[in-house]
Write a structure and sequence with these properties.
This is Hydrocephalus-inducing-like protein. It is found in: Cell projection, Cilium; Cytoplasm. It comes from Lasius niger. Its main location: other. About 20% of the residues lie in helices and about 40% in strands. By secondary structure, the protein is α+β, with helices and mostly antiparallel strands. The protein has 3 domains: about 50-195, Immunoglobulins (Immunoglobulin-like, Sandwich), CATH 2.60.40.10; about 210-305, Immunoglobulin-like (Sandwich), CATH 2.60.40.10; about 310-470, Immunoglobulins (Immunoglobulin-like, Sandwich), CATH 2.60.40.10. It has helices spanning about 5-10, 20-25, 40-50, 55-60, 350-375, 375-380, 385-405, and strands at about 80-85, 90, 100-105, 110-115, 125-130, 130-135, 135-140, 145-150, 155, 160-170, 175-185, 190-195, 210, 215, 220, 225-235, 240-245, 250-255, 260, 265-275, 280-290, 295-305, 310, 315, 320, 325-335, 340-345, 415-420, 420-425, 430-440, 445-455, 460-470. The protein is built from 7 helices and 32 strands. The strands form 8 sheets. Strands 14, 15, 17, 19, 21 and 22 form a 6-stranded mixed sheet that branches.
Length: about 475
């Protein structure tokens, strides 16, 4: 190849997805069940990257090794011939050295029966085999060459016999390479992909790799109380690692979720866990590199319900005259080893909170629609222009929705008051709550306040009752 073509080959290198290649070679299934992506654990990725060219050759030529290259390349299957190995892979190479790998093409034409008519033996089955033509089609390349290994080259391959070729690779620099060897027979054309995969571990390749464990066990915690674990992550590659993390479980997160880590530098990575429910939890944490590699880690943790209770389930006030007030004392006991936060709420759970927000949102939408219709009347009385009125209504509606989304629905009643409304309780401690009652009208009144407390999955109901006297 002339100097111009050589420079073009060098200026526009191919970048392979190394994880994608290794997943095909090892047959590892994706841990992402939603999408069929190529991913593997960090330890397996490092193991594959550390293989020398000779170790990779031994791996590919191991008897019984079955590799399906269809996810990577098309037109690599043949019904008549079998290529061993199915894919040629060079890695951990040094520029200037020469590397060789043997490629065997075997005629595996299946036997078939021919029914011939014979007067003496009607429908005689004759078993036959077929020799196949085989030609190699190779494109000139400054880095790869293919040579036939044998004394006499023949384009016809008998059943069960093989053609042996030597694939020679002479890299000029540390980058990715790709080459295809096509074979043509009587009925089809099939190819054997040849890949020069650079090494990114021994400082001879321009790719990063983060040294991170396959599994991170986050310490167990209580419901609604966060837990975290910090680990050290090092970039053992030879170029800055541009990465991002994403989890398939909202209970888990990592900080930082994305960033850049220079070669040989170390950073702290914090894995966080927070759950509204109790039980054991597991998540897949995906590490994505800028060049397309995707690794899969496992996050695990446990959330439990703490022993937190109110010393009574209901409070009944004595008879109170109109205009007067009474109070009673109750106690919240925290029998856990966590500092818990509490607050009094109107509804029994978060589902009811969301449902009430949706109801208010519908009402706000109705009011907004009615105001949009009124703009005609405002024009008639020369109060406001239609466009200005529409903008004002839209702004008011937007502010109302934003305020609604921030609403927590704390307990609020005209006759009952709980003090303090929210606070903290230290481990193995208690907190006193004062219940105030104000007699505002004659008759019986009852209400239910719900104690939202970190450490418990559900809210604790407290029934409040009082009979007012005239």
């Amino acid at each position: 190849m002339d100097e111009k073509k050589r420079s073009l080959t060098t200026c526009y290198p191919i970048i392979h997805n190394s994880v994608e290649i290794f997943v095909v070679l090892t047959g590892i299934k994706s841990c992402d069940q939603r999408e069929q992506k190529y991913d593997m654990t960090p330890s397996e990725y490092i193991k594959q990257m550390l293989m020398s060219t000779q170790e990779r050759i031994d791996y590919l030529l191991k008897p019984g090794r079955s590799i399906n290259v269809r996810p990577l390349y098309d037109n690599c299957e043949s019904e008549c011939f079998k290529a061993t190995p199915r894919i040629v892979l060079f890695q951990q190479f040094v520029p200037g050295n020469v590397y060789n790998m043997m490629l065997t093409i075997r005629n595996v034409t299946k036997l078939y029966n021919i029914h011939e008519f014979n007067p003496e033996f009607p429908f005689l089955n004759v078993t036959s085999q077929m020799s196949r033509h085989l030609k190699i089609s190779r494109y000139p390349d400054p880095f790869f060459s293919v040579e036939y290994q044998g004394s006499n080259y023949s384009t016809i391959v008998a059943p069960g016999l093989v053609h042996v070729y030597n694939v020679r690779f002479n890299p000029a620099e540390k980058r990715d390479y790709e080459y295809r060897i096509e074979f043509v027979n009587d009925t089809e054309i099939f190819a054997v992909p040849v890949i020069g995969q650079i090494n990114i571990v021994l400082a001879i390749g321009p790719r990063p790799i983060l040294d991170i464990p396959d599994q991170i066990e986050i310490p167990a915690t209580a419901v609604k109380i966060p837990s975290s674990k910090t680990i050290l992550v090092r970039n053992v590659g030879d170029m800055p690692a541009i990465f991002n993390f994403c989890s398939d479980n909202p209970c888990f997160s990592v900080e930082p979720s994305k960033g850049i880590l220079e070669e040989e530098e170390t950073m702290q990575l914090t894995a966080n866990f927070l759950s509204e429910k109790s039980g054991e939890f597991k998540a897949n944490l995906f590490l994505n590199y800028e060049l397309g590699e995707k690794l899969c880690l496992t996050l695990r943790s446990l959330a439990i319900n703490c022993t937190i209770r109110i010393d009574r389930g209901s409070v009944r006030m004595e008879n109170t005259y109109l205009g007067l007030s009474r109070s009673k004392l109750l106690t919240i006991h925290n029998r856990s080893d966590y500092v818990v936060r509490f607050q009094w709420m109107c509804f029994r759970d978060k589902k009811a909170d969301i449902q009430r927000k949706e109801e208010y949102k519908t009402l706000f939408q109705l009011v907004h629609n009615m105001e949009m219709v009124r703009r005609v009347s405002l024009v008639h009385y020369n109060i406001c222009l239609p466009d200005i009125h529409e903008l004002v209504c839209q702004r008011i509606y937007t502010d109302e929705i934003a305020s609604l989304m921030n609403e927590n629905f704390h307990y609020n009643h005209m006759s009952f008051l709980l003090m303090p409304e929210k606070g903290e309780i230290w481990p193995q401690s208690s907190a006193d709550i004062t219940v105030f009652f104000r007699a505002m009208e004659v008759g019986e009144i009852s209400s239910v306040a719900y104690l939202e407390v970190t450490g418990r999955e559900d809210r604790i109901p407290l029934r409040l009752q009082k009979k007012k006297l005239a």
